[in-house]
Known about the structure:
It is built from five helices and six strands. Strands 1-2-3-4-5-6 form a six-stranded mixed β-sheet, with helices on both faces. Mean pLDDT is about 90; it is low at about 5-10. The chain is an alpha/beta fold. Helices cover about 35% and strands about 35% of the residues.
Amino acid sequence: MSQLEQADRPGRLHAEHHITGGVRVVTLRGEIDHDVRDVLSEALLIEDGADPPRVVADLSGVTFMDSSGINVFVAAHQQVSRADGWVRIAGAQESVLRVLQLVGVDTLIPCHPTTEQALTA
């Protein structure tokens, strides 16, 4: 398991990831905005050799997300789709899920209530 955190603002966004059944599960906590988009990008980045790349982003600990987060998720989706992989979102809190739905990301990236459901979908 590895961890990433916004260095100059500890606690702002915290990301951990591990592999479960060949799927990269990224657990995020905190707020996702312009200041932490690089941390989010690095957390979702697919390492070479993952074939096909599959990512579940657990957003249950994310309390806020703006368009910067949306852009990173769309870019991650495009990256893994080119390699015949997928990205799924799990556990988004109501306010974050509303943002995803308002901009239509939920039609591009499947959103699931739990990580377990995202892994087995």
